[in-house]
Every structure is written in C-alpha cells, then in structure tokens.
C-alpha cells in the first residue's frame, strides 16, 4: 500500500479563487435600524445575504428550525453517510417542509442540528454510559443555539427518538417565552414479513440458547425496519415521548406516531410552522401551554397508552425546565390508579399492534376523547393551536381526518380501530390493568418501578397479583448477566432465578438501559419464570417481571448492594391496587434472626464498583443530578441546590 502524497502538486491550481463579487442588491436598512440595532443584529443581516438569502427579505420574522437530523442522504434517499438510527435519518425532510412554509409568509427560516445517539445501537456497549447524560447535554446545547439567534420569534423543534426528543422538549420548555412548537419525527413501518425492531434485538440470545438458527437470525436481523425513517414500531421511549409531547399540548393535533416519509407526515411540519407563526400573531408563547394541567394530562395519557417507564425520568425533567413542580413517584402512582391502560400497542398486549396502527386508530386525540368522557382529562388546558383540549376533541370527533384514518386501518390491515384504542369499559372487562407500579420493600426503601401491565399474563395469579420467590443471582455488570442468560457461563440462568443487577445506576455507569436482559427474558422460552431487579433503568420496549430504578442505588448505600447469590428474594406486585414489595426474606433455619441483622453483618458486594470505563463527564453528570434530586427527581440539574452544596462544601473544606 503506497503512502498518500499530501504535498504533491495540485491539479488546476489556477482555478483557486482569492476573491469573489459577493451578493448583489442592498440591505433594507433605515435610520432607526442603524442607530438602535446592535452590531450583532446588523452583522447577522450581512451573514444572511452572504449565504444567498434575498436581501429584500432579511427583515422578515426569524424562526429557528432545530432538529436532531443525522446522516447525509442523496436526493433519492440513498445514504452518503449513515445516521446512527432511522429516527433521525429523514427528519431533514421535515426541516425542509417547515422552512418552505415559513417562507410562504415572508418569514426567515434558520436551521440548526443537534443529532442524537441510538439507544438500540448502544445496548450492551460503553455507549450506553452516555445515553441518559446525553439528554441533559443536548438540551443545554439546544438552548444555547436558541439563545444564539437573538431575533428569533419562535422555534420549531423536530425530533423523534429516545433521548433527542426528551432533550428537545426540555430545550423548548426552557425557552418557553417564545412561540415554540414541537414536531414529532414519526415512526418506521413494520416489515410485511419479519420481526419488529424490539424482538430482533434478541437474536443473539435466542441463537445462543439454540432457539433459532443462524439462517433465521441473519434473515430477521436484516428486515426488521420496514421503512428507512422514523422511530421504532413499538411504544417504547421514542414513541411514548411523541405521545407525551402531544399530550402536553406542544404539537399540532394528531401529530404523534405518523408514518415517516409520507405526505401525512410532511404536512405536520408545514402545519407546525404555521402554528408557530399564529402564536406570534396571537401574542402567545409556549409558557401559556406548559402548565401544571399540561403535566397532569401528559401523565394521564402516558398511563392510558401503557408508555415507557423512562418517561418517569423525562416528564419531571420537562416540568423542571418549564419552571413547574416536578411530579414525584406518588403523583405518578395516583394518576395510574385513576386510569387503567386501554391501548393495545407493542410491547404490551394482548395483541401488540405496531405504532402506526395507534396513529391510524386516532392516536392521542382519540385517547384524550376517552379520558374526557371519563371526566379525567383536564380539558381546559390550552395547546399550541390556541385551542383547548375541549375544542380540539369536539372538532376531532366529527372530523374527516378521524374517519379516513380509521377507515384506512381497516382497509390496509383489517384491524378494527377499537381493538387498538379499546373503549375503557371494554378494556377493563378484558382485564387490562394500569401501567406503572411502584414497589417498595427492604431492598428498595426509596422505591422502585415496574411496568406492571406488561408482565406475562400466564404468571399472574387469579387475583391479578404477580408473586415470585426465588434465589438471587447477583451480577455487578450487564456483560456478566447477559453471558449467564445466554448460557455462556456457569451456572447459567434458569427458570425460578431472580437476577439482581447492581451498581448500574447513575453513580455506577450513568444509569444504563438493560434491554439486552429484558428482551432476552421475554423471548426465551423460560424467561417468564425469571425476575430481574436492578438500580439501572429499562428500554421503553422492555416487558416482563423487571423492576428497575431501585432506590437507593447500590453505590449510594442502598441495601441491594448487600445481596449475595442464593439469598431468597420475594416479589409481589398487585396490578389492581398498584402496590408491591421487593424483599429479601430468610430461609427456614437461617442463622440470623432477622433480615436487618443479615444486612448489618454484611458489607457491600465485593465486586461492586464504579464502572471502570465510565467517562469523566458522565461521572460529573451523575454527581450533579444526584444533588438535583437523583433518579426520582428526573436526573436534572437543580442549579440553586448544586450551588448551595458547592458553597457548603467549600466552607467545610476551608474549615478543615
């Protein structure tokens, strides 16, 4: 292989230009502008025409279109350079549509990009250590970009997936004095034949256990994404975040979960650009939309659809960014006790419809209508349209859009819309239960969380209670746990075990998702007979007897740090009352008279440690969010509390 010649003669050096004529025309300046505008605002006009913008139009209202676009596409959609995931692959088309619409009304569109990682791509890798910290970092960068365009009237935020979309909501909420509108980036379609993007992530575990062939794994791994753009086909964190954005009133109606790349999806960007402009004309801002009632509606609709438990981190973070009270575990418990789930969408059952079917069945407006009929929705809350939920629902009920979408679902897939968004009374009759339960106990005195609606029905007792008693299998890394699940280490995980995964909270590794484990347990034949408890969190597509967010986390002194292999663990989750417990119990004949004495006699697990590969900036994030309220506070930065803690620490050190 020959060495490259970096300093050889250039081809056609005479073509290298040293000056150019510049834009023609002149800026539409006035005496008042020149006397009173800042030099930065004036220089901004120079920069705009320098990029080729018509100088006659530069004084129009400025709108920032901020997106999470990733990758680079040819005009025909083929890749020049790949994005990290399908969710940000096509959103540039939404940016283009929104910009064109801004120009229709003589506005001046700007576009900026803060791309996002893929939680699916980083599962089981060191990249997962940056997943949750990325959300805070991206939100800060987005807010800085918003503030760096001083003349902007509003922001049109376009995002799709697990961390980019919550970050965008936090950024828009943190600049809520503007006419901000959110555009959910839509969903990818399921393949005509093949597995969805959640199940396909288990091909390694199923192959290792002999439950699928190499040929089957190769085939399914290739065809899971039916279309090249949009978030995954299940109601995981990405799709749930889209639903929550609409529930908050931050989007135009019927925006969440639209099929990416199609005209009905592109129209959302145009409508959103118009909505931002109308907010400016009405003198309204996102601050008028983001209220305590909006947060309540988001929690309510999250429960009704059976959404991802990751939104227990993101909804409080959005509230904090908007300057509102952060909902705590008690608030989520109260909301979930009000409303059983009545949406049948992946990864929940009983059928598990893909997200595009939820969109066609009526999406968020249809769910909101049912909740209003139950007297639960705070329907006087205003949305970015300037209309209340009451007004939007009244229009939705008789709209052509509702009729044609529901008819299309029947025509295309042969599915009754009322089998996707099930009338609540019928859903209750079928035994569908509330979404989220918050067990406590001697292993989680500060609480924990489980998506109770998605435990396999065959392991639920007749009284709708999940009961589990089994020996602990303790792991301090996800790598070790998944190896045991795959049967690659001895002893392997077997039916009846309780996996105890510790040291994976914010302080240990950045609070990684453990979807490698939860997905394997769902799709392995014996997996429903295994439970998991951990101080980590779960992917939104996780299902099963998986209890996360154990508090305190092991590295913060939580009792879960003292569990050893063979300790007997007892779990009980009541899916009706939404109560539960996670306890270590003593076996008959145990030497200690009480569990408390066993705990007091033990130190932390000898292998418990901060992840050796944890990045320094993730360690800083973990420390700052711990001061700001930790996991149950949304993993956000409470600046006043952080400053007070630093000042107290400095005084203490000076006094030593």
UniProtKB/TrEMBL annotation:
<dbReference type="Pfam" id="PF00920">
    <property type="entry name" value="ILVD_EDD_N"/>
</dbReference>
<dbReference type="InterPro" id="IPR020558">
    <property type="entry name" value="DiOHA_6PGluconate_deHydtase_CS"/>
</dbReference>
<dbReference type="InterPro" id="IPR056740">
    <property type="entry name" value="ILV_EDD_C"/>
</dbReference>
<feature type="domain" description="Dihydroxy-acid/6-phosphogluconate dehydratase N-terminal">
    <location>
        <begin position="85"/>
        <end position="391"/>
    </location>
</feature>
<keyword id="KW-0456">Lyase</keyword>
<dbReference type="GO" id="GO:0005829">
    <property type="term" value="C:cytosol"/>
</dbReference>
<feature type="domain" description="Dihydroxy-acid/6-phosphogluconate dehydratase C-terminal">
    <location>
        <begin position="438"/>
        <end position="583"/>
    </location>
</feature>
<dbReference type="Pfam" id="PF24877">
    <property type="entry name" value="ILV_EDD_C"/>
</dbReference>
<dbReference type="GO" id="GO:0050401">
    <property type="term" value="F:xylonate dehydratase activity"/>
</dbReference>
<dbReference type="InterPro" id="IPR000581">
    <property type="entry name" value="ILV_EDD_N"/>
</dbReference>
<dbReference type="InterPro" id="IPR037237">
    <property type="entry name" value="IlvD/EDD_N"/>
</dbReference>
<dbReference type="InterPro" id="IPR017798">
    <property type="entry name" value="Dehydratase_YjhG/YagF"/>
</dbReference>
<comment type="similarity">
    <text>Belongs to the IlvD/Edd family.</text>
</comment>
<dbReference type="InterPro" id="IPR042096">
    <property type="entry name" value="Dihydro-acid_dehy_C"/>
</dbReference>
<protein>
    <submittedName>
        <fullName>Dihydroxy-acid and 6-phosphogluconate dehydratase</fullName>
    </submittedName>
</protein>
């Amino acid at each position: 292989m020959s060495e490259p010649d970096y300093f050889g003669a250039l081809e056609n050096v005479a073509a290298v230009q040293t000056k150019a004529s510049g834009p023609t025309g002149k800026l539409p300046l006035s005496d008042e502008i020149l006397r009173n505008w800042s030099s930065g605002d004036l220089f901004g006009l120079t920069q705009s025409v320098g990029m080729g913008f018509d100088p006659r139009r530069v004084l129009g209202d400025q709108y920032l279109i901020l997106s999470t676009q990733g990758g680079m596409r040819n005009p025909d959609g083929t890749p020049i350079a790949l994005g990290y995931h399908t969710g940000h692959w096509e959103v540039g088309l939404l940016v283009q549509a929104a910009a064109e619409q801004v120009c229709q009304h003589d506005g001046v569109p700007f576009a900026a990009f803060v791309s996002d990682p893929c939680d699916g791509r980083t599962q089981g890798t060191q990249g997962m250590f940056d997943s949750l910290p990325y959300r805070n970092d991206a939100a800060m960068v987005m807010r800085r970009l918003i503030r760096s365009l001083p003349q902007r009237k509003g922001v049109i935020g376009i995002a799709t997936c697990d961390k980019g979309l919550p970050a965008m909501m936090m950024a828009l909420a943190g600049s809520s004095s503007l006419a901000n509108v959110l555009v959910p980036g839509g969903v990818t379609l399921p393949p005509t034949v093949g597995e969805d993007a959640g199940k396909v992530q288990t091909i390694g575990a199923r192959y290792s256990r002999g439950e699928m062939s190499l040929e089957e794994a190769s085939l399914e791994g290739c065809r899971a994404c039916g279309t090249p753009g949009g978030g995954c086909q299940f109601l995981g964190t990405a799709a749930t975040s889209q639903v929550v954005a609409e529930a908050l009133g931050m989007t135009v109606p019927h925006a969440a979960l639209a099929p990416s790349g199609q005209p009905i999806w592109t129209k959302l960007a145009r409508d959103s650009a118009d909505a931002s402009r109308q907010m400016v004309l009405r003198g309204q801002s996102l601050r008028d939309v983001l209220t305590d009632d909006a947060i309540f509606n988001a929690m309510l609709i999250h429960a009704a659809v059976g959404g991802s438990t990751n939104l227990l981190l993101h909804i409080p973070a959005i509230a904090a960014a908007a300057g509102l009270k952060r909902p705590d575990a008690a608030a989520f418990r109260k909301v979930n006790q009000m409303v059983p789930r009545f949406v049948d969408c992946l990864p929940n059952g009983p059928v598990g419809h893909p997200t595009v079917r939820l969109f066609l069945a009526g999406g968020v407006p249809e769910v909101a209508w049912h909740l209003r009929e139950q007297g639960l929705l705070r329907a006087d809350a205003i949305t970015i349209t300037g209309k209340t939920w009451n007004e939007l629902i009244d229009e939705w009920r008789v709209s052509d859009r509702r009729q044609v979408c529901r008819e299309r679902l029947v025509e295309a897939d042969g599915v009754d819309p009322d089998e996707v968004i099930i009338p609540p009374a019928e859903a209750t009759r079928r035994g569908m239960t509330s979404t989220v339960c918050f067990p406590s106990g001697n292993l989680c005195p500060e609480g924990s969380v489980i998506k109770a609606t998605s435990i396999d029905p065959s392991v639920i007792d007749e009284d709708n209670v999940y009961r589990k008693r089994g020996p602990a299998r303790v792991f301090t890394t996800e790598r070790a746990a998944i190896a045991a699940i795959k049967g690659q280490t001895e002893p392997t995980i077997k039916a009846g075990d309780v996996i105890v995964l510790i040291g994976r909270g914010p302080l240990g590794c950045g609070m990684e998702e453990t979807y490698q484990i939860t997905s394997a347990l769902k799709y392995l034949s014996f997996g429903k007979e295994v439970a998991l408890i951990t101080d980590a969190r779960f992917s939104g597509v996780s299902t099963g007897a998986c209890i996360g967010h154990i508090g305190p986390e092991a590295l913060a002194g939580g009792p879960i740090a003292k569990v050893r292999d063979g300790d007997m663990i007892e779990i009980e989750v009541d899916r009706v009352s939404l109560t539960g417990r996670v306890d270590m119990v003593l076996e008959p004949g145990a030497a200690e008279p009480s569990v408390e004495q066993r705990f007091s006699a033990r130190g932390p697990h000898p292998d418990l440690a901060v992840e050796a590969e944890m990045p320094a900036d993730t360690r800083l994030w973990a420390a700052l969010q711990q001061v700001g309220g930790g996991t149950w506070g949304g993993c956000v930065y409470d600046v006043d509390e952080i400053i007070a803690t630093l000042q107290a620490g400095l005084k203490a050190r000076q006094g030593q």
